[in-house]
Design brief:
0% strand, mainly alpha, single chain
């Protein structure tokens, strides 16, 4: 599906789709589900996968930070100095 075609350049896919395909078996299974969901329509499939890849790239990481005393860390966060 993502193999380069020498004669028919219209069958090629974008680098984002190839990268998603090469991520491993979970990514391939996800792509197979998307393909079945769009009823095996190539154009719809490529749009869906490109949207999926774009969403993954733009995921925002929000880090919540605060200062805690030792007491708060032990009681509120259930953290101890020694794990175990």
């Amino acid at each position: 599906m993502v193999a380069p075609h020498k004669k028919r350049k219209d069958l090629g896919v974008s680098e984002a789709v190839v990268a998603k395909w090469n991520e491993g078996p979970d990514a391939k299974n996800l792509m197979a589900q998307v393909l079945a969901k769009v009823n095996f329509d190539r154009e719809s499939f490529l749009r869906s996968i490109e949207t999926l890849v774009r969403r993954e790239r733009t995921t925002e990481l929000i880090i919540d930070e605060a200062w805690y005393s030792e007491y708060e860390m032990e009681h509120d966060l259930k953290w101890s100095k020694y794990f175990g």
